[in-house]
From TrEMBL, chains A, B, C, D:
Originating gene: aroC
Organism this protein belongs to: Oceanipulchritudo coccoides
Residues the record lists as binding FMN: R124, S125, S126, G285, K300, P301, T302, A303, T304, R326
Comment on bound cofactor: Reduced FMN (FMNH(2)).
Stated role: This reaction introduces a second double bond into the aromatic ring system.
Family statement: Belongs to the chorismate synthase family.
GO MF terms held by the record: chorismate synthase activity; FMN binding
Entry-linked NCBIfam families: aroC, PRK05382.1
Reaction catalysis annotation: 5-O-(1-carboxyvinyl)-3-phosphoshikimate = chorismate + phosphate
CC terms in the record's Gene Ontology section: cytosol
Name listed for the protein in its UniProt record: Chorismate synthase
Binding locations of NADP(+): R47
C-alpha cells in the first residue's frame, strides 16, 4: 500500500520498471477541462530518458494512452486512467542484481519488506514509477493554469557545488528549458553540463538542488494543523526517489537569523495586504499568504555508478558489483518536471479542499427560519 | 479540515489557545496496553510552558484527563480521548491583535481562509494545539518501546549559530534532559542557555535545529511510493508550528558529495546485513533498513518579539504593534518532545500498515485445493 | 479503528457506556455557522433516556459541552469537539455479565476481537455511543437547513406488525413529535404505545421500521461508483446498533414489479425535470435526482429482555442469565433522531464533495493562453 | 470522486462503457500470492455478457491484461493494475439517448452533476464498470480461500415472485453454476429461466433477490462503530447498479419477532462458543461471530425495456424513447459473481484491519523495562 496520493484530487499509480507498463488513475478531476493526450505527452517528454546527452541513453518513447475519463476532448468528471508501455527492456543487464544488493538502492529493503522483488531495473523502486505522477500532474497543472492562473516553475539551482546566482523576479519556463540541464542561468548551466559530463566519464554521479516557485497562488490554501500546505509539499517531495531534504522560504539558513530579522512585515500594496519580505516562502501557519510560494529540494547523487563496489548477496556473503544498467549521472535535469507535477497535485488537492469547506455556503441566518 | 493524522493509528486533535480545552482522540490503538494518565502527563510536562527560566512564563498545569478507551489500567482497543483544560487565559493581552496582524503569524491567513479567527493567543494556530499530539505520541511511544523495543530520542543540535559537536554513539534521554535547553552536550547547552537569555533580554528571538534519532527500528517500515517513511516524517515535521525544513541522513550536505562517496556499502555484521556508513539516515527506497533512523528539523526564530513592528490592520491601514503575550524566545527546548511525539505517531502507523499487508498470511499453495 | 465517518465533514467519536464520557469531534465544518450548545442539546434531548414512559428509566441529563471550534457564537472552521459526561452508572447491575455472554449482544465478539471489553452496560457497543453522532448530526442538520433549505424527517412507520397507513405529502416534525413513539399517525401511535407497554410488562421486547424522508435536496449529490448516495446511507444506517436492513425507494417490494411498472417517467413540471413516480426513492445512478429522498431502516427487537435465558460463560460453561440493566423494550422512538443525524452527516459530506469537484472552476479556455 | 473502495486492500476503478477500456488497480495486496490472468479471467467469464441465452447478446470477450504487480507468477506487494478493452461498440444504438433521458437511468443525474456525460451505453454509469470490481474481487477471493479457508457463495434466491425453497446446509458453487440463472434449486431455476424468456419476449424486464453466504469466516472481523462488517457490506451492495435493498440475518422479517424469539442463544459445540440459531446472520455488534455470514440484496427490474416510454429531452421537451441497446431482461444471473466480488473485497479489507490493530504485539509488561 502507499501508492495513492491526495484526498480529493486523488491519484493511484502502478507499474514496475521492466514490467508491462506504468500508469496512473486520477479520481476527482473536475469535469469540462479540455484535455488531450498531447497535453500529457508534452510533460512526459520533459521527463523521458534519452532526451539529451546528459541523461541516460535508455530509449523509451513513453507514449501515453488515455484509457478513460475523457470524451469529445473534455474531462467527464469520472476517473482518468493513463497508461505507458515499457519498451526498452534489457533484463540481462540486471542478472547479477537478482542476488547482490546494489549499494544505496532499495533492493535490500524491498526484499526485507515484501519477501520478494522484481530485480530488473529496480522494479517498483525505479524512478520510472514517476511517469504516472507526471501524467497526473500535467492534468492538475492545466486546471490550475486555466482555472486559477497559477504558474508553477521549477529549476535546477545547484549541482554539486555549482550554484546559480540569486534570481531577480519570476523565472520563466522558457529560461528553464533553454538548456538540457534546466538551470535558468545560462552561464551556470554551461558549467553544470560540463561537470555532469566529467563525472559521467569517471563512472561517478552527482546530486544537487531543485527550487520550485509558484506564481499567482491565491491566499487560503492549506489545511492546518496537519495538512499544512508546506507539510503536504514536504511529503510530496520526500516521496520522490533520491530526495534527502526539503526547505521552504528561509529554510535551514533562517535558523541563524533573529526574529527581528526574519519576520516579514505586512504592508498594503495596490489595495492588497502583502509582506515586504518573503522569508515565509509564501505560507503562514500552513496557509498560502498570496506571496510567491518557494521551496527547495535536495537530491542525492545517483546511487548507480559505473565503478566496482563492495556489497553482499541476499545470503549475506561478501561480493563485488559493477554498475551496468543505463543510468543518469545526475537526476536533477529530469527531476524538474517531476517536482512541478507533485507541486501541481498538492495545490490542486488543496484548492478543492479549501473550496469544499470555506466556499460552500454563505450563511445568512437573518433570512432563515431556523 | 486537516486535523487528523495517520491511517491506522489515527489521531484527531481539537482546541484553541485560550478556548475551553485542547485534546485528541486516537482511533486504532491496540488493546491490552497498560496505560495511565501518568504515562501521558510525563510527556506533557516536558512540553508545558513555565517549566524552566528559558521558556514562556505562561502558567498552565496541562493536566490531562483520559475520557475513554482505558479500563482497568489497560487500553480497550476503542478510541482513547484525552482532554486538557486551558487555565491561564489573559485575553486582554491580545486585544490589539484582533484588528492588527502580527508579522509572521497566521492571523492574516486564518482571516483570509476562514473569514474569521479566534484572535486570543493565536487560537487554533497557537502551538498549544500540539498538546494533543504529545498526548497521542506518548501512547504510540509506549507501544513502540514495550512491543518493539524502539527508542526515539530527539535533542537540540543547534541554536542560532551555536552548534554542538558531532556525537559518537547513541544519545540517551537522560543526557537530553540534563539541562533545560535539551542539548545533550553540556558545554554547548550552557552557551545556548546564555544566548537564549541574552536574546530574550533584547526582546528578540532565535531558532535552531532539532535532530531526532530512532534506535532499534526493524527493517521494512515505509510504504512506497508515496508514503515512504521519510515522506511521512517530513510531513509530520513540517506540520509543526515554526518549522521551515527537514532533512534525512546526509540531507542538504549530501548534495555536494559524489555517488562514490555517498553510497553506503553493504556488509554482514553479526549475521545481519548492515551498511558501513549511514548517509541514507536509515531509509532506502522509503523503507527502514535497520540502521539508526536520523533526521533534522529546522525551526525559525519565534515570530513574537517584544519590539515595536510595522504592520497593517484588517482593513489594510498601516499601524504599529508591540508584542505583549507571554512567549518563548526560542521554541527549540519545548519542541523536542513534540518532535518525538510526531515521530512515534508516524512509526506506529507504519508498523501497523506493514503488519497488515506483509505479515497477514503465509501462502502455502501446495496444501490448498484452490 | 472504525470510529470515524465521512470524508470532508468528518467525525470521530469516543466513549463507553459507564465510562467517563462520550463525545465527538467534527473536522471540516464550514466557518461562520451560528452555533450554540442549545442547538446540540435540543437533539440530544430527543435521544436521551428517560424522556417518556415507554423508554428506559435510566436517568442521564446528557448535557453537552462544546470544547472547541466555536467563538462568539459562530463556528471557526476548526475542529468542534463536544463531550457528554456519563452520570447514572450502576455497574453492579452488570456484574454477572463480566463472565456470561448476553445473547445477541456484542459481549462475545468484543472479547474475541480485542481480547477484553468493558462489561458494564456494553461499554463501547452500547447505544450510548450514538450520542456523539447525534451531536455532530445536529451541526450538519443546521447547516443543511440554513445553507440549503434541506429538511430531514424520520419517523416510526411500524412496530412489530403494527404499520401506519401510507402518508400523503410531506411529514412535519411536529407530527412526529406529537407522541412519544414518534409515529406521525396518531391512531397508529396509540396502538404502538399500548403494544410497547404490553411487551414490557412481559419482560420482552419488539422491533420495527423507521422511515426517513428528505425534502428540498438538490440534484447532484452522490459520488459514483462506490460512494453512491444510497450506498453511504446504507452504511450509515447499518452502522447503527440493532439495525438489520435498509431499502431505498421501492426496495425489496420493487423486486416484484416489471420494469414497465417500476420505471419513473420523466416529465417537465414548473420548468423543472421531474419524475412522475418515485420508485427510485430520490436517487438515480447513485446521485440525487431532486425528488424526495426516501429510505427505510429495519431495527430488530432489543436484545436485552427481562427473562431468564440460556447462555455460556467466557470459558464456554453453560449458565443462565437474567436481564437486569435498565433498557428500552423498543428502541424505535429513540432511534428517530439518530437516523436523522446519520442522514444529515451523509448529506453534508456529499454536498461538500460535490461542491469541491463540480463547482470549483468554470473553465473558459477561450480566455486563457494555455 | 468516489471510484475507490477499501482502506487497506484498496481498489480504484476506471472506465466507461463504449470508452477505451475498463479496469482497476489494487493497492495493498499481500505479496507472495500465486496469481495469473486465468484466475481473473475465470471470474470475468462468469460476469461477461453473452454467456447464455438469458443474458444480453452484446459480445465482449472481456479479456483481462495484468499490467503490473505480478512477477514470476506471484504478487509483488506492489499495485496490481488490470485492464479490459471494450470491443463491441455500437454507438449508433445510442444516438437518441444523447438528448433524451432514459427513464430510471442515470443520464439525467450525470448531466445535472457533471454538466456532461458519455451517452453511449450509459458511460460510467453502465454496469460494465463492475468489471474492475470482479477482477479485484477475484484476487481477494483467492487470498481468503488460500490464506484463510473462507468460501463465499452467492446465488439467485428469487426472481420476481418465484422464490426458491429454504436451503438446508451450505450451498456449493457447483450447484449455483449448474444452470445459467444461478439458482441452486434446479426446479426453481427452470421456472426462473422460463419467466425471464417470457418477459424478454414482451420487451419487459424483472428483478429479484441475490443471497450471499460466507462459510469459514473466523470471529473478529468488523470495525465498530462505523465500519461494522454489515455496514461495509451494505455499502458495498448498495454501490452496485440496480440495487435497492440490503438485509442481514433476520433482516426486515426480524422486525416482526419478539426479542425472546429473535435472540440467538449461546452454547458450546465441539469446544467452541456458537449460537443455536443465526438470526444475527453472522455478526454481533458489527463483528463476525463465527457463524455463517448471510445477507440478501434486492435488485430492481432492469431499467432498459424494449417498449416506447414517455420522457423529456435535455431541454425539458416531452418526447418518446424506445429502448434499443442490447440489454439483460434480468440482471440477477450476472450479478452473482459481482456480489461475491464485493463481499471478498470487504472481507479482505477487514481482515487486514483487524490484523493490524489486534494481532500486532502481545504486550508483556513484566519482561520490559519501560
Amino acid at each position: 500500500m502507499g501508492s495513492s496520493f491526495g484526498t480529493l484530487f486523488r491519484i493511484s499509480t502502478w507499474g514496475e520498471s521492466h514490467g508491462g507498463s506504468v500508469g496512473v488513475v486520477i479520481d476527482g478531476c473536475p469535469p469540462g477541462l479540455p484535455l488531450s493526450a498531447e497535453d500529457i505527452q508534452a510533460e512526459l517528454d520533459r521527463r523521458k530518458p534519452g532526451q539529451s546527452d546528459i541523461t541516460t541513453p535508455r530509449k523509451e518513447p513513453d507514449s501515453v494512452e488515455i484509457l478513460s475519463g475523457v470524451h469529445d476532448g473534455k474531462t467527464l468528471g469520472t476517473p482518468i486512467a493513463m497508461n505507458v508501455r515499457n519498451k526498452d527492456h534489457r533484463p540481462s543487464a540486471y542478472s547479477e542484481m537478482k542476488t547482490a544488493y546494489r549499494p544505496s538502492h532499495a533492493d535490500f529493503t524491498y526484499d526485507q519488506k515484501y519477501g520478494r522483488r522484481m530485480a530488473e531495473g529496480g522494479g517498483r523502486s525505479s524512478a520510472r514509477e514517476t511517469i504516472g505522477r507526471v501524467a497526473a500532474g500535467a492534468v492538475a497543472s492545466k486546471i490550475l493554469k486555466l482555472g486559477g492562473g497559477v504558474q508553477i516553475v521549477a529549476y535546477v539551482e545547484s549541482i554539486e557545488d555549482i550554484q546559480m546566482p540569486a534570481s531577480e523576479g519570476p523565472i520563466q519556463r522558457e529560461q528553464v528549458e533553454a538548456t538540457p540541464v534546466r538551470c535558468p542561468d545560462l552561464a551556470t548551466a554551461e558549467r553544470m553540463i560540463s561537470r555532469i559530463k566529467e563525472v559521467r566519464s569517471e563512472g561517478d554521479s552527482i546530486g544537487g538542488l531543485v527550487t520550485c516557485e509558484v506564481y499567482g497562488l491565491p491566499t487560503g490554501l492549506g489545511e492546518p494543523v496537519f495538512d499544512r500546505l508546506e507539510a503536504d509539499l514536504a511529503k510530496a517531495m520526500l516521496s520522490l526517489p533520491a530526495t534527502k531534504g526539503f526547505e521552504v522560504g528561509s529554510g535551514f539558513a533562517g535558523t541563524r537569523l533573529k526574529g527581528s530579522e526574519h519576520n516579514d512585515i505586512f504592508e498594503a500594496r495596490e489595495g492588497e495586504i502583502r509582506t515586504r519580505t518573503n522569508n515565509a516562502g509564501g505560507v503562514l501557519g500552513g496557509i498560502s499568504n498570496g506571496e510567491t510560494l518557494r521551496f527547495r529540494v535536495a537530491f542525492k547523487p545517483t546511487a548507480t555508478i559505473i565503478q566496482e563496489q563492495d556489497t553482499v548477496t541476499q545470503a549475506g556473503e561478501p561480493t563485488k558489483l559493477m554498475g551496468k544498467g543505463r543510468h543518469d549521472p545526475c537526476v536533477l535535469p529530469r527531476a524538474v518536471p517531476i517536482v512541478e507535477a507533485m507541486t501541481a497535485l498538492v495545490l490542486m488537492d488543496h484548492w478543492m479542499r479549501d473550496h469544499a469547506q470555506n466556499h460552500l455556503f454563505d450563511f445568512n441566518p437573518e433570512s432563515s427560519n431556523s
